[in-house]
Every structure is written in structure tokens, then in C-alpha cells.
Amino acid sequence: MRMIDLIAKKRDGLPLEKEEIDFIIKGFTCGEIPDYQMSSLLMAIYFNKMNEEETINLTMSMRDSGDILDLSSIKGIKVDKHSTGGVGDKTTLVLMPMVAALNIPCAKMSGRGLGHTGGTIDKMESIPGFTTSLSLDEFTKQVNEIGLAITGQTGNLAPADKKIYALRDASATVENISLIASSIMSKKLASGADAICLDVKVGSGAFMKTMEDATKLAKLMVKIGNSLNKKTIAVISEMDEPLGMAVGNSLEIIEVIEALKGRGPKDLMELVMCLGTQMCKCAGLNKSDNEIKRMLEESIANGSALNKFREFLNAQDGNVDVINDYSILPTAKSKYEVKSVKEGCIKHIKADVIGHASMILGGGREKKEDSIDFGVGVVLNKKRGDYCKKGELLATVYVNDEKNKEQALSEVLSAFTIVNHEVLKESMIKKIIE
Ligand code: URA
Question: CB of 183 closer than 6 A to ligand 1?
């Protein structure tokens, strides 16, 4: 087999066979296939697409390119949750303690963020002492003991995806549904869970800008997971404005703890309840959606979810006093207010623009090697559908380094679209695909 012939085959619109895909992935991972040939193939895939069978074969091949974790020593059905990424998305940290409080084991491997805000791991690291690098043994032991562990990636999961993703990023071939689906699912399948619950975001702050594309991606990932014998469900949720009120690492941790105390913002809690219900169903909880929702609500009302969060912090060496004393978290030196320049109703808050403002203040990474300033970010004082007067507070911006302050403040103001008619607050949940 020669790579040049396979590039030509895809260029001419023909599907690749399983053995051909395996040849490409093995050859590229071990360095025998050079970057220039792989990027050429990726561009051919970008234009000519892959069919379902090719996408499933690509996913399996990337999954098998590295370690496949064995979580069988954890008792019960392990459900993983994955979000395609959004601004202010702290869902995992509210959801996992709630689900674990219902005695469903939650074993989650999370990533660091690139762009916008930090990832789940970065958010957790804003808690003093918290460790995010558990060995596989520590990880499984903790899930067996307290029902919940979140760690950075252990082992060498889907190295082919890591190499291909870097090339896609540099060759304008990220935005292809088969490449996105196989990239996400190869990592999820390698990380050893029995079932997968996906949160596919749609809107201006998401990879998928339209419902049509989000639906295609969600259906494809569900198909891949189910055809490889992992029960997979996808929720399509809206990412047209930031999720919740807080964007930035410490600020989001405060919002998480508030949510676990029963004071979470409406949109965040709607999403958490929906994903939680789907996760419990994936884990085999044999109850109606309404009953599961009621049990999840009860985990907040009776404090068991907050207790689970406390146990989780304690197990991973985080300072548990943070639960009652937010001043333990890294904070910004200065706060600036962004006020409305007109009266009206908020039609839209561009999530990507708020995310960018937080990133240039240091809350996210532009490049992989950048460090994160945990204390900075943006807290919204208004959400879509809210009414505001001229001069009323729209958002508060938390700043340490004044260098990009003016740009961040003007970006935050520009993210708001205010109109002179009423705007309805819509549901976060657009579709559930099983
Ligand atoms: N996230 C991934 O892991 N891969 C993609 O291709 C896109 C988003």
C-alpha cells in the first residue's frame, strides 16, 4: 500500500477501506507517513467527506493507536460525559457530584482548555492544593471509595488523534464532521467507560453554528458509540450566550459551589438536570425521566451533592474550606463595571466574544504552553431576555494585568445586543438523540 495512492483515491471521491485507514493511522502515528501527505489527505477528506463506515473505521483505528484503559475494577456501570466545548461551561463539576450522590460511579478524565476559558482541569486547579494527576490505580480506587474522581488524562490515549488534531489545526481542516466525531469518540472509547453521554453545543459560541450541523455531529457520534457497543446519548444544547453567569476559572468554581448549594443559574441547572437524567439512564437507573429529575433535585436540596463535592475535594487534596470561604480562591486585583449605553431588552450575548475577553485577561490559553490566571474573568449581571435601563450594570470584569483591560471591557460591551422589544427566554435543550 502507498500513501500517495490513498490520497488520490480520496481526492477522487472514493471511500477508503478499513485496512487502508489502519495503514494510514499506524503509519502517521509512528512517523512513517510525513505531515505533508497527511495534511493533503485531510484536505481531501474535508472536501469529499467520509461515509459512516469510514468514520467508524477511523475512530477504531485512532482509539487503538494508544492505551485503552481498563476500568473494570470499578463496580457498576461507568458513564462518561463529554461536552464539545462552550464558554462558561462548568456543567461537569455540578453534574458529577449530583449523579455520584445517587450512587452512580462517575469516573471522568478531563482536559485543559485551549482558547476561551480553561477546561475542567484548569478550573479545579484554581482550588488550592487540588491535584488533577491521579494514576490509574488512584483513580479507580477513589471511584470505588467515594463514587467520584476527575483527573487529567492518564496514559497515552489516542495519540493518533493528538497528532492529527495538531495538523488539522494548522491546515484549516478542523471543521469536518467525520473528523470531529472520530476525534472526540476515539478518546472517549479509549478512556474505558461503559456508556457515554455527550453534550453537543450549538450556537455562536460553539463549533457547530447551526442546528443542522449539530444534529449531524450528534447523530454520527451516537451511531459510532452504539455500533462499538457503548450506550451513547447526545443532548444538543444551546451556546448562543455563555452558560450561567461566570466565565473564568475561580469565578466558575464559585458558581459551581453556589449551584450545589441550590443557588445555580437557571440555564446551567436546566442543562445539568437534563444531562444528569440521561447519565443516570445510561447507567441503567430504571426510573422515569421525571423521577430521576426529582432525585437529582433532592441531591441538591438535602445537601448530598454538596457533601459528595466535599469528599471529592478532600480525596484530591483540595482545600475543602473553599466551600464556605470563597476568599481562599485566587482573586483578581481589580473589578470593572460594564454598563449599558441604552435601554431595552437583551437579545443576544455573544459567547465567543465574552470568552475572548476572558482569555486576553489571562483566563484562557491562546497557545498550549500559556499559563492561566485563575482569578480573572467576566461575571454577567444580565442574561438574554432580561430588561436593562441605560447605565445599568451588564457585566463585571475581573482584572489582574491592566495591559488588555480596555480591550476586554470594550469586547464585553460589544458582546451585548440590546433591542427595544421583548425577547423570550428559550429552553437550553434543543434535542436529545439516542
Ligand atoms: N474536540 C476534539 O476533541 N476534536 C475535534 O476535532 C473537535 C473538538
Answer: yes
